[in-house]
Amino acid sequence: MPVAVKNPMTKKKSGKIYFIGIEGAGTSALAVIYKNLGYDVAGSDDGDHFYGDILEKNKIKIFSSYDKKNLPENVRKVVYSTCINEKNPEFQEAKKRNLEMKSYPEALADLFNKKMGIAVCGTHGKTTTTAMLAFVLDNMGLSPSAVVGSKVIDWRANSLYGKGDYFIIEADEYQNKLLYYDPWSAILTSVDYDHPDFYRTSEDYKNAFIDFAKKIPKTGYLIYCNDNRDVLDVAGKAKCRKVSFGFNKESDYLIKIKRVKFSQTFEIFHEGESLGDFKIKLPGAHNALNASSVIAFCNELGLDPDKVREVLSSFRGTARRFQKIGERNGSVLIDDYAHHPEEIKAALRAADEIFPDKNIVTVFHPHSFTRTKALLEDFANSFGDANEILILDIYGSAREDSGDVSSEDLVELINKYYPRRARYVPRVEDAIDILKDSINENDVVISMGAGDVWRVTHELAK
Asked: pTM value?
């Protein structure tokens, strides 16, 4: 068990902190932690208000539009989302007043770097793994703090404020936010080229993780997936204690799946000895990998594997990660955040395993023009386990207004590999209209992507 350090987050603070773009997955979680630290927190956002209920529950005032008048007179610090443009009127007003300003990753690093920070990083699986690790450590009495990139179903929130030594974060590699964090330890789930609007090449992308892994001190751990070639390259450059997990027989923690439905059972072997069966309420081999990284980490920390087993079995997952929303006309409705080809394949493979005799209907919302263009072939080849595919217009979000690729291009290429399976459906409302009366007990409908495609299954469930 690592030596405890003095916790700088137990002392209550005071003053006003204002968030520009407060309803992002990360900014909303950090705002709540600052609130728990004793700060007077407020902020603004003109987005879809997906995290508004969490902020309101914590009595954090939210302005639904950006206006320089929103900034309090005596604000102590301004934290802004990395998607905020410098032309934002509140950003400009804060600059004009010469206020202390920090981007979201800088403000998070202010807290994370002062504790025994555990960063969960990688292309896929970050959210579930972060939530799972924090859930286990919290239920084992270690009182961690945590920032998660989605709502954790058991918490009805996306953050934990604890008084223990550990701070667990979902460490996003986009815009190389990894530069700000100095982890004591890390879990590396996967490295598959992504974010081509920021990383010009796959080597640039991998190097961001290599640089991050090098920062882990010799007293810390890198828990890494042994099934991913680029992960192995990253792990090879780290100087800390290294522990692998995966289906590869050379893994320090070897997984053998026994049963898969909406929940699954798998056995973990460590140094040739069985740690026994573990059951989780999440489907898919990718979630067995996520869980095994947590099991490996906890075992390295010297935690009782039987208690870890018990806590893991009760974890219910996070929002938008193969989340069952409800039913309509007997069809099962599922929502998933998959927005990268490898994530799509993993989610659809899980759906096929759980519902082998059903028609799988996928409504996909491509996210960002640059990602769609750079990975177009990979996207087109990722829908093999879907029977019907509805492709919405590309969701550029705050990153991009337009690009030289379209959803029609993706539909054409999908149909090249899987004839007559895909069709172009421009809007969420169009997809709802198409499906509301046509689906039945023979169908599974999965809304998929990083945009507001979640509205499809939520509306159909009403």
From this structure: 0.90
Q: Are 229 and 236 in contact (CB under 8 A)?
A: no
**Which of the four CATH numbers 3.40.1190.10, 3.20.20.140, 3.60.20.30, 3.30.1330.90 does domain 113-312 have?**
3.40.1190.10
Q: Which of 310, 357, 343, 356 lies closest to 135, judged by CA?
A: 310
CATH superfamily of 323-460: Mur ligase, C-terminal domain (3.90.190.20)
One-letter amino acid at 328 equals R
Q: Single out the residue of 345, 273, 353, 276 nearest to residue 312, CA to CA.
A: 276
Helix H segments across 305-355? 305-312, 341-354
Strands 388-391 and 422-424: parallel
Buried b or exposed e, range 178-202, using 16+ CB within 10 angstroms: bebbebbbbbbbbbbbbbbbebeee
pLDDT, tens only, 61-113: 999 999 999 999 899 899 999 999 999 999 999 999 999 999 999 999 999 99
pLDDT tens, 331-380? 999 999 999 999 999 999 999 999 999 999 999 999 999 999 999 999 99
